[in-house]
UniProtKB/TrEMBL annotation:
The lineage of its organism: Eukaryota, Metazoa, Chordata, Craniata, Vertebrata. This is Uncharacterized protein.
Amino acid sequence: MPESDWSPPIASLLPEAVKLISQDLNYLDKEFKFVETVPNLNADETKALKELMMNNNIVIKPDKGSSISQEVLFAPKIHKEPEKWSKPHEIHPGRPIVSNCGSETYYTAEFIDHHLHPLSIRHQSYIKDTYDFIKGTAMGKKFTPAYANIFMAKWEAGALS
């Protein structure tokens, strides 16, 4: 199917939408320089590639990308009774620790983190490090309400069971 070049008439759009779209287009024009690319195939190679693409007898399934995590480790749940282990007294249950360093999604996560970090550190309940966490649990500190909720939920579960 050919690519569509239809756009809604500007008169049918809300003025706010037109303003936002114009701002976005100006930003893109200013921030991103579009460079014409030079083909890396010569004329014969391009022709051969087009012929292969038009040949319906050749079926090449797309590589969807597996997104298989690079490494999975398990932190043992040592507080569990040995009778309740996956294999009693032999294999303890574990909490999975997944390392995605170098995986297909790693750089996407890095990109998202880069853009969200400046926003997240502004939040009143942001915890910078372990020291900040410990300092924040004292009464009257920024983390106290969340800490109190966790404590009360645990207390209720124990008291009501």
